[in-house]
Amino acid sequence: MRKSTGSLARWAFWLAAVIATVIGxxxxxxxxxxxxRARTPSPGGADILAELIKPNNAIYGEPLLGWAFLLxxxxxxxxxxxxxxxxxxxxxxxxxxxxxxETVMEVEMHDAARTQATIRRRQTFHANRRGITAxxxxxxxxxxxxxxxxxxMKQTSMVANQTITKELLIRGSESNLxxxxxxxxxxxxxxxxxxxxNWLVCMLHTAHLFDGIVVTRTGESKYENEFSxxxxxxxxxxxxxxxxxxxxxxxxxxxxxxxxGNVRGFLIRExxxxxxxxxxxxxxxxxxxxxxxxxxxxxxxxxQWVF
Length: 307
What we know:
The chain is an alpha+beta fold. The protein is 29% helix and 41% strand.
């Protein structure tokens, strides 16, 4: 709720800034309009521009105001282009099959040597079109000798506190599994949820306004020897479906975590890498490292460590 409230405050701030800018720009715009209407025959656009670039011109009574008008118009034009591209991208992303509101991944080490681990997933999303009756996801190991214990693979989806998972179709090897979660019926849709910003859908869902639309998926699987080496890594990647908020938590046994400074978080898009803030906390049994990313799209959020 705090995240959504913060987004709402930022949107309100930028909306107020845009309104104030447009009002100020309108004060600059009126003199050129009056200049155009007062001349007979009416001057062309080139004539008005030629007059505006003069330090002292017949349009404004004060010097250099013509330059200020041209500069402010150029800045507003660039913002309009930028916002238009953002709106176009947003509408394009709204047309994908599902909108993922949040993904939280947790990697828990069960022993000091990190030979046994559990990966837990919690995800909220909603469908944007009818006919979606299943969801596919994959799980793969990164370390040589790492294994996914297939019988431990669990996944459950719920809508309005009702389970909608019918069955899990699991195929592949212990190092690379594909899971298709089949639902009891097609996922519900809402045109309003599809075109509203995801942060606003999250906030409204917190207020229980989209309980019948938003799907909550939870699951876990156990791994063996995936993180037992001197170097380890866990990442979440997105392709076509953007994720509004992504969180990765890695839990090491208390007293058996990597040395200070040896756990790092990265945001990776193709060959471009940005280091992201990493927070650390403790529980009675674990040291917890966490990274977050907003609006993950065609990128990977990664936590990696060295002992």
